Amino acid sequence: MLDNKARELLSPVLDRSAQLLHSAGLSAGLLTAVGWLLGLGSVVLICFHQWIPALIFWILNRLVDGLDGPLARISGPSDLGGFLDILADFSIYSGVVVALGLVVPSARTAALVLLFSYYLSGSAFLALSSLMEKRRIAASGPRSLHFVGGLAEGGETIVMYCLFLAFHRYLVLLIWAFSVMVIFTALQRVFYGVKALRSLAP
Questions:
Q1: CA dihedral 4, 10, 16, 21 (to 10 degrees)
Q2: Where along the sequence do coiled-coil regions lie (predicted)?
Q3: What are the chain's domains?
Q4: In terms of C-beta density within 10 A (0-12 exposed, 13-18 middle, 19 or more buried), how is residue 132 classed?
Q5: Residues 165/46, Cβ–Cβ less than 8 Å
Q6: Which letter does DSSP use for residue 146 in this model?
Q7: For 77, which DSSP code?
Q8: Contacts 24+ apart (CB under 8 A), 88-92
């Protein structure tokens, strides 16, 4: 829901930053790897109850993730890069939730439900993206995959994870609230997909 607006606002800054990184000889693949390591650092820090450092590493992970796409478009995007980028994102998203469930026992049920909601939403997203590209329903534009929007997208995930780490005393309530958002997003994608694919049925 926030992604399109945030992209409009941040694109000029990200594009200029990507140009500088490209001039310095850095590659999008390297940024993806660095971003993943920063995200992994956040996961490890959560396991040691280092909430503020984990929050800083999470924000750095998202900043780096925002740069690898523009950098890839300068140097030439690749399917492999898109594949590794989405894999890195999903592994860190789920890793943070697993870490939170491990260190906050009262949040384990909520964390399990959130992981289930991720599985449901991610399956709908990836399957629908593949089928829509196959049937040429919509072009993905500069991105490697066709993104079907919804209530909870990347922007909402960034905000909610910041809240998880900054206000961990309210973690259970926050995770339940985000789980509802992600499940709603999954249902949005399912209904959209059913409607779109039925319209092309022979």
A1: -90
A2: none
A3: 3-198 (1.20.120.1760)
A4: buried
A5: yes
A6: P
A7: -
A8: 88/32, 88/35, 88/36, 88/39, 89/65, 89/154, 90/118, 90/122, 91/36, 91/39, 92/36, 92/39, 92/40, 92/42, 92/43, 92/61
